Amino acid sequence: MLHCGKIAPTMLYPLIRKFFFSLDAETAHGLGLNGMSFLHSAGFLGLLAKPVPACPVDLMGIRFPNPVGLAAGLDKNGAHIDALARLGFGFIEIGTITPRPQDGNPKPRIFRIPEAQGIINRMGFNNAGVDALLANVRAAEFPKKGGILGINIGKNAMTPIEKAADDYLICLDKVYNEATYITVNISSPNTKNLRELQKDEALDDLLCQLKARHAQLTEKFGKYVPMTLKIAPDLDDAQITAIADALRRHRFDGVIATNTTLARDGVEHLPNGSETGGLSGAPVFARSTAVLGKLSTALAGEVPIIGVGGILSGADGAAKIAAGADLVQLYSGFIYRGPELIGEVADAVNQARREKTV
Fold first, then answer.
1. Alpha helix (H) ranges present in 140-188?
2. Domain that holds residue 32
3. 187 an active-site residue?
4. What is residue 258's DSSP assignment?
5. What is the pLDDT of residue 10?
6. Which residue from 17, 57, 159, 238 has the fewest beta carbons nearer than 10 Å?
7. Is residue 331 a part of any domain in this protein?
């Protein structure tokens, strides 16, 4: 592997963040994405980010140019793929997408906790529907040039939980030929009863149906698109073991650990700390990494792990690798630290991966 050189810190992003943090969080989210796309089209996005040197990782039959990806949720509809890729991510995951468009939960539904470098969201899979996402993917240059694009799929809020598999299968059918890999999201806390799909019988049934359809699509398109499962950090040891067994049994290609947490450890008494929804950022790091470590032990290297949750420094990224992750993803840390974090984490993760192989 090539060494990932560190990206020099920029003074621009802290100023930009100060402005955006003065706005409502969801308003800032939309303005920020649109602003990045504008700067990209104008050729000025390089002012915010320098290229991340290549440090390739081969995983799930895919060569990732560097081990740091963007987690799902930031660009739900895939409308800003090229701009986000320009910031240096080794891979981009878009979604969560559902078969039909839906508004999600009532606003306000994103809450910053800057004192703890955390964010609570209860978005509820707001998105424009899978067909709109596919139109955006086909218009983007990043996938055409071989960029690694994950597509994260879910169920509509109005679909009964006993019919959830129908929604996942619809999305799988539609995105299969456009994705580098596909993530099955059963761990968002913001869609009623969704996490019930993590339980033994429900999980076994869902994964069985997905893998059967996956085999059909592999034959239809003449190519194998890896499929991963995204899990919650709010799991006990028995649940972690059961999920590991299911991943092996159904031959899933990878697992993403983890989504946001319902716990409020360390933020209970802070402004916005009591809001309902999933907590991300620094407060979820310890819980997420603990689940990752237990999952890694249970899987014994048989299924690759992508670590996500609370990475706000290079050291945090390295800790995910030490706990058993093969790749990492950023979201809330990217909001707090900006593009500088991508290179910092890439460098630290690459070093940690080298140390594990010595």
1. 141-144, 164-175
2. 12-357
3. no
4. -
5. 57
6. 238
7. yes
Assigned domain for 155 exists: yes
d(CA 258, CA 280) in angstroms, rounded, equals 10
* Model confidence at 256: pLDDT above 80: yes
Q: Tokens 């249970």 correspond to what residue?
A: 298
Counts of helices then strands in the chain (DSSP H, E): 12, 13
Q: What is the CATH number of the domain that holds 185?
A: 3.20.20.70
**What's the total number of domains in the chain?**
1
Q: What's the pLDDT at 7? A: 39
Cα 106–chain centre separation: 23
Structure tokens at 48: 């915010």
Burial class of residue 201 in the structure, from the number of CB atoms within 10 Å of its CB (0-12 exposed, 13-18 middle, 19+ buried): exposed
Question: Tokens 């390089």 correspond to what residue?
Answer: 46
- Using CA atoms, how far residue 215 sits from 223, 251, 303, in Å, is 10, 11, 18
Asked if the structure places residue 5 within a domain, the reply is no
First to last CA, the chain: 13
- The C-alpha atoms of residue 345 and residue 185 are separated, in whole angstroms, by 25
**Which residues share a beta bridge with 230?**
185, 256
Cβ atoms of 308 and 256 within 8 Å: the answer is yes
Q: pTM for the full model?
A: 0.96
The Cβ-side half-sphere exposure at 46, using a 13 Å CA radius, reads: 4
Contact between 85 and 40 (Cβ < 8 Å): no
Cβ neighbours of residue 118 closer than 8 Å, sequence gap 6 or more: 112, 267, 279, 280, 281, 282, 283, 284, 332
User: Exactly one of 37, 187, 188, 280 is catalytic; which is it?
Assistant: 188
**Mind listing the pLDDT tens digit for each residue in 45-78?**
988 887 888 899 999 999 999 999 999 999 999 9
Above 70 in pLDDT, residue 2?
no
Burial of 162 (0-12, 13-18, 19+ CB in 10 A): exposed
- Whether residue 239 lies inside any domain: the answer is yes
3-state secondary structure of 250: coil
Coil, helix or strand for 229?
A: strand
- The candidate with the shortest Cα–Cα distance to 17, out of 289, 294, 333, 348, is 333
User: What tokens appear for 333 in the block?
Assistant: 């840390």
pLDDT band at 88 (very low <50, low <70, confident <90, very high): very high
